[in-house]
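F.,

This is the one I mentioned.
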C-alpha cells in the first residue's frame, strides 16, 4: 500500500469530517498499513458517535487484541474515489520500511556493532516519578539484589519488564538508571540495528546482539520501540519480519531459561503496548508492565536542571518553570531549553553583546513549544475506553480519569 493513498484519504477526511464511511475506510487502510494507533483514534471517534457501530467495534477489537490482521471489509472502496490493490499489498509491513529481502547466503560481514555502555546514572538521577521508581524497585531491583528472595522466587524473576507510556517521558532514562543501579552494562537494540536484506541474516543479527550482551554480563538489554521489533506477527505480511519476531521470542526464552544467561536482564520500551505481539508478553518474556507517565512537577524541575546544567543561565527559577509546564514531556522540556538558548544566542548576535539565558527566554520558549503528547493521549483514551476488557490498562485509565481526560 502506498502512503499516498492513505494520505489522500486523510486529507479528504479533513474536508469531510462527518463522513463516517470515509473515516471507517481510512481506519481500515491505516490498520492495513500497520498504523494501528492512528486507526484507533478514528475508530474511537466512530464509536463515540455510535457505540454500536458494528464494523468499527470489530476493527477496534482487532486493533487492540493482537488478533489477526484486519480482514478486508465489505465497505465499498470506490465510494471514496480512491482505488487500492489489496493483493499487491500483501507484503506490506506498515510503517517499518523493510528492505527487499533477498534469498542468498548471509555474508557474515557487516554484523551489527554492539555498543555496551556503562551508565553512570542511578535512580537518584531520575527526578520525581516516585511511584514508578517504587514499582521498579519492588518488581525488578529488590528481588535481584536479594539472594534469599532469588532462591525463593527464582522462577518468578524470569522474564523482562516492559516500560510503556507517551513518547519522550523518560523510559530510556529509567532503563539506563536501572542498569546503573545494577552496575550492569547497557545494550540498546533497535529494529534498524537488526534488519538486513539477506534472508535469515536479520535473525542472525539479533542472535549476535543477544550473544554479545551475554558476554557483557551483567548486562541490561534494552529493546527500544519494541512495538516495531515485535509487531504482531499476524499483522505483518512479510515472512522475513515474522522470522525476526520468532527469533526475538527464542532469544527471550533463552534469557528466561537462564542457561548461560545469568546476569542478563531484558527491559523493553514502547509507546504503543497495544501494538506489541501478544506472544512477547507471555509469562517468562516481557511479562511485567510498568506505565511511565508524563513527568510530574518534581520530575520536570529535574529535567530543566539537567538540560540547563551546562548552559549559561542567570536568575532561572526551575520550580516556576516546572509549574508552568504541566503536560509537557521530557523531550518537550529539552526542546524548550534549546529554544531559549537560541533566543539568547540570536539576541547576543544582533546586539553584539553576549548575554546569559534568562527566565524571560525560557517563558517565551514555553509559549512557543506546545506539548507533544496529545496524539498519544487520544489513542490511550480509546484504548482505555474500548480495549481494556481484561483490565491490563487499568492504571492508564485511572491516570486519564485523574487528569480529566476520561
Ligand atoms: P521515546 O519514547 O521517544 O523513546 P522516552 O520515554 O524513552 O522517549 P527519554 O528519552 O528517556 O524518553 O526522555 C526524554 C528526555 O527527558 C531525556 O533527555 C531524559 O534525560 C529526560 N528525562 C525524562 N524523565 C526524566 C526524569 N525523571 N529526570 C531527569 N530527566 C528526565
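My design for it:
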Amino acid at each position: 500500500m502506498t502512503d499516498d493513498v492513505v494520505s489522500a484519504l486523510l486529507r479528504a477526511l479533513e474536508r469531510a469530517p462527518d463522513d463516517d464511511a470515509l473515516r471507517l475506510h481510512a481506519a481500515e487502510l491505516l490498520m492495513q498499513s500497520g498504523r494501528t494507533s492512528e486507526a484507533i483514534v478514528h475508530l474511537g471517534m466512530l464509536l463515540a458517535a455510535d457505540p454500536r457501530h458494528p464494523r468499527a467495534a470489530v476493527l477496534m477489537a482487532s486493533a487492540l487484541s493482537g488478533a489477526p490482521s484486519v480482514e478486508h471489509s465489505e465497505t465499498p472502496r470506490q465510494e471514496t474515489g480512491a482505488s487500492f490493490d489489496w493483493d499487491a499489498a500483501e507484503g506490506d509491513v506498515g510503517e517499518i520500511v523493510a528492505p527487499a529481502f533477498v534469498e542468498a547466503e548471509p555474508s557474515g560481514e557487516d554484523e551489527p556493532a554492539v555498543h555496551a555502555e556503562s551508565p553512570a546514572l542511578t535512580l537518584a538521577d531520575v527526578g520525581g516519578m516516585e511511584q514508578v521508581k517504587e514499582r521498579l524497585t519492588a518488581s525488578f531491583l529488590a528481588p535481584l539484589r536479594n539472594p534469599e528472595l532469588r532462591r525463593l522466587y527464582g522462577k518468578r524473576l524470569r522474564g523482562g519488564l516492559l516500560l510503556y507510556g507517551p513518547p519522550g517521558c523518560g523510559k530510556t532514562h529509567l532503563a539506563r538508571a536501572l542498569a546503573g543501579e545494577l552496575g550492569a552494562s547497557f545494550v540498546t537494540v533497535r529494529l534498524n540495528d537488526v534488519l538486513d536484506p539477506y534472508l535469515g541474516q536479520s535473525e542472525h543479527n539479533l542472535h549476535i546482539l543477544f550473544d554479545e550482551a551475554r558476554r557483557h554480563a551483567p548486562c541490561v538489554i534494552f529493546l527500544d520501540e519494541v512495538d516495531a521489533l515485535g509487531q504482531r506477527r499476524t499483522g505483518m505480511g512479510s515472512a522475513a519480519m515474522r522470522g525476526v519476531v520468532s527469533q526475538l521470542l527464542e532469544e527471550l526464552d533463552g534469557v528466561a531459561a537462564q542457561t548461560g544467561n545469568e546476569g542478563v536482564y531484558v527491559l523493553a520500551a514502547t509507546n504503543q503496548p497495544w501494538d506489541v505481539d501478544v506472544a512477547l508478553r507471555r509469562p517468562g518474556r516481557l511479562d511485567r508492565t510498568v506505565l511511565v507517565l508524563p513527568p510530574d512537577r518534581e520530575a520536570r524541575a529535574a529535567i530543566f536542571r539537567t538540560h540547563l546544567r551546562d548552559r549559561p543561565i542567570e536568575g532561572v527559577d526551575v520550580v516556576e518553570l516546572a509549574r508552568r509546564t504541566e503536560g509537557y514531556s521530557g523531550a518537550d522540556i529539552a526542546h524548550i531549553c534549546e529554544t531559549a538558548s537560541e533566543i539568547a544566542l540570536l539576541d547576543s548576535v544582533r546586539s553584539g553583546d553576549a548575554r546569559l539565558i534568562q527566565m524571560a527566554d525560557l517563558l517565551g520558549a514555553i509559549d512557543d513549544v506546545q506539548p507533544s503528547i496529545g496524539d498519544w493521549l487520544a489513542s490511550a483514551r480509546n484504548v482505555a475506553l474500548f480495549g481494556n476488557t481484561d483490565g491490563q490498562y487499568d492504571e492508564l485509565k485511572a491516570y486519564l480519569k485523574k487528569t480529566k481526560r476520561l
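The two ends are 34 Å apart (CA to CA).

Talk soon.
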